[in-house]
Amino acid sequence: MTQTQAQQAPALQKDHDHILILDFGSQVTQLIARRLRESGVYCEIWPFNQAPEDRIRAYKPRGIILSGGPRSVLDEDSPRAPNIVFEMGVPVFGICYGQQTMVEQLGGKVEGEQSREFGRAFVDVLDHSEITTNVWDKGAHEQVWMSHGDHVAELPQGFEVIAKSDGAPFAFIADKKRKFYGVQFHPEVVHTLHGADLLKNFTHNVCGCKGDWTMASFRAEQIEKIRAQVGDGKVICGLSGGVDSSVTAVLIHEAIGDQLTCIYVDTGLMRAGESEQVVNLFRNHYNIPLIHEDASEKFLSGLEGISDPEIKRKLIGGMFIEVFDNCAARVSKDGKPAKFLAQGTLYPDVIESVSFGGGPSETIKSHHNVGGLPDDMEMELVEPMRELFKDEVRALGRELGMPEDFIRRHPFPGPGLAIRIPGEITQEKIDILRKADTIYLDEIRKSGLYDEIWQAFAVLLPVKTVGVMGDARTYDYVCALRAVTSTDGMTADYYPFEHEFLGRVSTRIINEVHGINRVVYDITSKPPGTIEWE
Ligand code: XMP
């Protein structure tokens, strides 16, 4: 079920001005969308090759942004913007590759040699433009972020130079009459100081967007949409304890009240106190009908004797679906099963990415998500957050008045503590790990570091080592601590704790948790490591 629906473009936010971003495959295209939305402008990212003329025309964008990309416009089969982009009479802003293809398509020239600039660079501002108004003054020397091999060498008719850099004589160009703009640098990344202001000038000054896309308006519109979609039908929403499913549930509940039933499958692999918190918040605080299914024994016995990480993940995913299915069957209306399934799908899951490689990417881990339910489940999806980025989901949670500690929670994987106990899982190991993890997070919170860290957790290693406590020999497990900073979980750096902090956590864990006599800190980044240990 999920595939076809997940691939549809998100619903158009008709009443708001909106901008279309055509993606040529840059690593930072999503940042363009984020910058625009931060200034209250709704926008969508479409792959350049899935934007036929009639689709673009029907979308009626106020302006179009052409993203960067990894290819060279000098290559024979390199991508081009659909010609309609330059014929609709709307402003166009080409960024890096987007600038180059615009120049090439409008009759200018791009060259490849001796022009590489990567990283921080400076431009000299030579002229005024609507985009630089109140941001860059004529004569200024401004910091930007570059990442290009080719550069524009000859401008198409009607264009003039607004700024230049050492490696890019046409670093910023404009055809003021047609409102076509092009930059060789990336205004969407934070290293281009004032880049967000330049983009805002494009959307607000040049395209005339009002910037009225706020979380309050999103909330009100989604509530209407949910009501229109489900009518008087029943909706089921799986809760994981995480932010996405929680915000989804609270929003849907606001729209349709008791037509929503939440299902929380307690795998027995959650952290200490987590299940109680979920039940408390949803059943007691929000009064949302909740099926709390304690399936911990099933999961524990199903995992008995299993050490292989992939088999563990698959078994957990399979058992989860089975239990969830059974719970869902209990939710019915007039003797008929619930028709709708809510999922906390986010925009990054929906954006179709531009792939130049062609082949499928390698499976590093088979992810299990609460949303990852069976293909044969014949339910219609309700996905009110398909248009949001993660930080926007948090903003929506705040808008809905959800508790701050819930909203700011670190991500927690679907398979739970099972993938933080390499090797065989036993109840004893789960209990030991829970205690160590609680102490570690307690110390992180007490030090005020929780919000600086993307994710922090303890791992119980399948290794026993010798120690000495009092005068006695011990032979207990090793506990590894992990903490990383990240913006999206795709790459990560280990967190540079003070030694004194690590020492304090280690002492507490060894003193307070029976079964652990040694603590180590994981200093691996991702890549080459992954965040979780399995
Ligand atoms: P890795 O370990 O792949 O993790 O670097 C990246 C992010 O994904 C989370 N993660 C999962 N989340 N189901 C989830 O919902 C999973 O099976 C799963 N595996 C890893 C991980 O915690 C980190 O935030």
Key features of this structure:
single chain; five-stranded parallel sheet; nine-stranded mixed sheet; Rossmann fold; GMP Synthetase, Chain A, domain 3; 534 residues; 22 strands; globular; binds xanthosine-5'-monophosphate; 15 helices; alpha/beta
Q: Describe it for me?
A:
Strand 10 and strand 11 (180-183) form a beta hairpin. The protein is of the alpha/beta class and 534 residues long. Helix 6 (215-230) crosses helix 12 and helix 14 packs antiparallel against helix 15. Strands 2-1-3-4-11-10-9-6-7 form a nine-stranded mixed β-sheet, sandwiched between helices. The chain has a five-stranded parallel β-sheet with strand order 14-13-12-17-18, sandwiched between helices. It has three domains: 17-206, 3-Layer(aba) Sandwich (Rossmann fold); 215-407, Rossmann fold; 425-521, 2-Layer Sandwich (GMP Synthetase, Chain A, domain 3), CATH 3.30.300.10. Residues 1-12 have low confidence and may be disordered. The protein has helices at 2-7, 29-38, 53-59, 97-105, 195-206, 215-230, 243-256, 274-285, 296-302, 309-329, 347-350, 390-399, 404-407, 427-446, 499-512; strands spanning 18-23, 42-47, 63-66, 92-95, 109-111, 117-125, 141-148, 151-154, 160-165, 172-175, 180-183, 235-239, 260-266, 290-294, 332-333, 336-337, 340-342, 380-382, 455-469, 472-485, 493-494, 516-521. It is built from 15 helices and 22 strands. It is globular, with a radius of gyration of 26 Å. Helix content is 31%, strand content 23%. The two termini are 28 Å apart. It binds xanthosine-5'-monophosphate. Xanthosine-5'-monophosphate is lined by residues 365, 367-369, 411, 413-415, 455, 489, 526, 530-532.
